[in-house]
Design goal:
The chain is α+β, with helices and mostly antiparallel strands and about 120 residues long. It has one domain. The protein contains four helices and four strands. The strands form two sheets. It has a two-stranded antiparallel sheet with strand order 1-2. It has a two-stranded antiparallel ribbon with strand order 3-4. The longest helix is centred in the last third of the chain and has 9 residues.
Length: about 120
């Protein structure tokens, strides 16, 4: 019997966080997306100035769930480019987690997680 690869069972630490998506009403903003990519984002999630995601306070309107418990992006496949560049455990991640009273991600939490 073949053993399963434990790295296949590793879930993104982002799914129990969401702090970066609740850091500022100025983020996520649109930067390098072309018109075709922006057209894929549902209009109800785009801010009035068409410069980024609509936010409820500091929280991106496309974020579902509870910060620090369980979260998900409701438009994950078409999220803005800036969201693709966010990496678990980087400086910005640590800053957002601190703002929400969450500890920094360490090697144990990151395990063998590989962002997509």
């Amino acid at each position: 019997m073949e053993k399963s690869d434990p790295s296949l069972d590793v879930q993104s630490p982002c799914q129990t966080c969401g702090a970066c998506c609740s850091y500022s009403s100025n983020w996520p903003r649109f930067t390098t997306e072309d018109d075709a990519a922006l057209d894929l984002i549902p209009e109800k999630f785009v801010n009035a100035g068409l410069s980024g995601m609509r936010c409820d306070g500091d929280r991106c309107a496309a974020l579902a769930g509870r910060i620090g418990v369980a979260t998900s992006c409701t438009i994950y496949p078409v999220r803005p480019e800036v969201c693709h560049t966010c990496m678990p455990g980087d400086v910005e991640c640590g800053m957002a987690r601190r703002r929400h009273g969450l500890p920094a991600l360490g090697a144990v939490q990151l395990g063998s997680f590989r962002p997509v």
